[in-house]
Each structure stands twice: as structure tokens, then as C-alpha cells.
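Example 3.2
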Amino acid sequence: MVCLSGEEVARFVTAPPEIKINPNGVDLRVSEIWKISEDSVSTLHGKIRETTEQVRIEPNGDFYELARGVYSIRVANEVSVPAGVVGFCNPRSTLNRLGMIKSQTGIWDSGYKGFGTQTVFIPIKLFRIHKDEFWFQLRMHTANDSNHSYDGHWQNEKPQ
């Protein structure tokens, strides 16, 4: 697999909001944060994909204040993964260094289009992050040619 340059990746990301172009990808902001209660129940069966007891988190002034727990985070930019490419969206390493544990999700198949989500875990008492901070880096790599494009449950997902 060959990693696309940040300039190439940027062509497949809608703005606004602003993105930050890096040598091997682009940094993205978030539009929604949902805390998943430790008492939640998640169900995955066929077309059913749901988690109970999620609470939307709004900024407290200029900062999101994330207490210990699990969060579902929606990316603020719509991403369109072209044919012959796979996208990888991961929390920036700075977030790991400051106490956030990232989920190893965020693989977006060729043909995926939408406002993806990521799941993170905060193991510390409180994680404060400015509402305009860049959270995730999207990288894209070429893949073996395939006649298949993503057409799954999350195609064209939008903010709630």
C-alpha cells in the first residue's frame, strides 16, 4: 500500500470546517460527542446497530470536558473514499500522550461516504479539549483494485 500525501487526501474531505494538511494525511475536528453510559446495552444483529443510554456532550464555554468513560465522537467533515483507496482515521497521538485511549476503529472502505465516528476511552479523571482542536488524522492508502465499493449500513451517515 502506498500512502497518499496530505494534499491528495484533502481532495476527498469537504470543508468547512477547516482541515489541517499534514505530509501524510489531514487533521479533522469533531461535530458531536456522545458519552456512552457504563450501564448501556449495545445490540448488533443484522440491520440493528444501537447503544442505549447515550448523552450528548456540549462544550462548557470553549472546552469539552470529558470525565472518565467511553465516548462516541463524530467527525465534522464529510469524507468520500475513492475507488482503489482505503481510509484510516485515528485519534492524533497527542491525545494519547495526554491520557486518551483510542479505539482501533476507523477503517473506511473504498466507496465509503459520510461523517464517520470514532470511539475513545478516557481513563483519567477529566480530559479538557478545546472545541476547535483537531482530534483525528485521516490517512488514505492505495489498495488492490477491486470492483467492490462499500455499500454497508453506515454509507452516507450524517450528524444526528
